[in-house]
Amino acid sequence: MNRQQKRHPWLAALLLSLSSLTAGSPALAAAPVRIAYVDWSSSVASLNLVCALLREQLDQSCEPVETSARGMWRTVAHGQADVLLSAWLPDTHASYLERYGEDLVDLGPNLEGTRTGLVVPDINVGRQTGGSGARTPTLMPVESIADLADYRDKLGGRIVGIDPEAGIMADTEEAIDTYDLRGFRLTQGSEANMTTALSEAIARKQWIVITGWQPHWMFGRWSLRFLDDPERVYGGTGAIHTMVRQGFAEDNPQAYALLDQFSWTPAEMEQLLVWISQHQDNPYAQAQRWLRTHPQRVKDWLTPTTQED
Questions:
Q1: Rounded to an integer, what distance in angstroms lies between the CA atom of residue 256 and that of residue 243?
Q2: pTM above 0.85, yes or no
Q3: Does residue 286 surpass a pLDDT of 70?
Q4: Is 91 within 8 Å of 250 (Cβ atoms)?
Q5: Total domain count, the chain
Q6: Are strands 185-187 and 158-160 parallel, antiparallel or unpaired?
Q7: Is the dihedral of CA 218, 224, 227, 232 positive or negative?
Q8: What is the mean pLDDT of residues 249-269?
Q9: Rounded to the nearest 10 degrees, how much is the dihedral formed by the CA atoms of 74, 77, 82, 87?
C-alpha cells in the first residue's frame, strides 16, 4: 500500500474493488481511464461516480491519480492522466485554464451553479428563538467581507483555508487586499482540516470564517451563509467542467462519449456528498448506490454511447 492509500483508506478500497472486478479481463487491465483528482469532497465524489459508470456501464477500468489543483491540470495537459472532472470555471481556475487550456479539450460543464467565497456559521446566541418566539440574534453579525475588519480580534485574525494551490486561496489573498483586512492571515491545510475547525467552532459557539464553496456536504449538515462580496473578488456563480487530454477521443471514443454527456445538478451531487461523508471509508460503494437510485440519469448519460455502437 502506497502513501496515498495509507492516507485515504477509501482509495485502497476503490482500487481493490476495481482490480477484483477487472480480474480475467485483458481489455480492462490494458487501458484504464486515468482520472486526475484533488482530495476535495466534490472531486472525490465525481471520481468515484465516473469510475463506477466506466466499470459497470462500459466495462472499462479507471485509475485514480491524486494530485494538487495545479497538478490536476498539468498532468492531463501533459498526457500523464486522461481526464479531470474538477475544473472550476470561469473564475476559480482561470489561471490554470490560461496556462494549460491549449493542451486540453473542454467538454463543457458537468455541473452548473457553483459558488465560492468566505463562509460563516449562521447560528444563534443561546436558543434559536426567545420567549416571544422571535429569532435570537446571530452569533456572528457579519454580513459582508468588508465587515470582517471590525471583528478581527473575535476571529483571531484568521481565515481558515485549504490546499494552497486551490483557486479559492488565491482569491482569498486578493480579498484580504481588496477589503483592507490588515492583520488577517489565511491558514493553509486540507479540506478535512477546514471542516474539522468549522465543526469544533460551531459546537463551541466560537467565531470562525472559512473558505467555502458549493456544492459541499457541509451546507447540508450545518446552517451556513456566504458573506457578501460587493467587489466580486470571487466572481459570480460558475460551473465545474470536464477536461480531457488531446487525443483521448481517438484513443477511447466510448469513454469520451460518456464523459461528453456526463452532467448532474448541485442537488444530485450533494446527495452523494452527504452519503460519502457518512461512509468515508468506501465512497465507491456510495457511488454505486447513487447509480442504482438514479437509473434514468444513467440512461441519459449512456444514450450517445449506445447510438455510436
A1: 10
A2: no
A3: yes
A4: no
A5: 2
A6: parallel
A7: positive
A8: 96
A9: 70
Q: For residue 218, what is its C-alpha cell?
A: 457541509
Q: What residue numbers bound the domain in which 188 lies?
A: 116-226
Residue 150 and residue 99 share a domain:
no
> Which residue is it, cell 484504464?
32
What pLDDT is recorded for position 220? 85
Rounded distance between C-alpha atoms, residue 268 and residue 266, angstroms:
5
Residue with cell 481493490: 16
State the CATH number of the domain containing residue 127: 3.40.190.100
What Rg do the C-alpha atoms of the chain give, in angstroms?
21
Number of helices (H) and strands (E) in the chain: give both, helices first.
15, 9
Q: How long is the chain?
A: 309
Ramachandran class of 222: left when φ > 0, alpha when ψ lies in -120 to 50, beta otherwise: beta
Confidence of residue 279 (pLDDT cuts 50, 70, 90): confident
- 190-222 pLDDT, tens per residue? 999 999 999 999 999 999 999 999 999 999 889
Three cell numbers written together for 61: 477500468
Per-residue model confidence as pLDDT tens digits over 128-160: 444 454 454 678 999 999 999 999 999 999 999
More confident residue, 213 or 308: 213
Q: How far is CA 235 from CA 94, 117, 228, 248, 293, in A?
A: 11, 9, 11, 31, 34
One domain for residues 38 and 95? yes
Q: Under DSSP, is residue 227 helix (H, G, I), strand (E, B) or coil?
A: coil
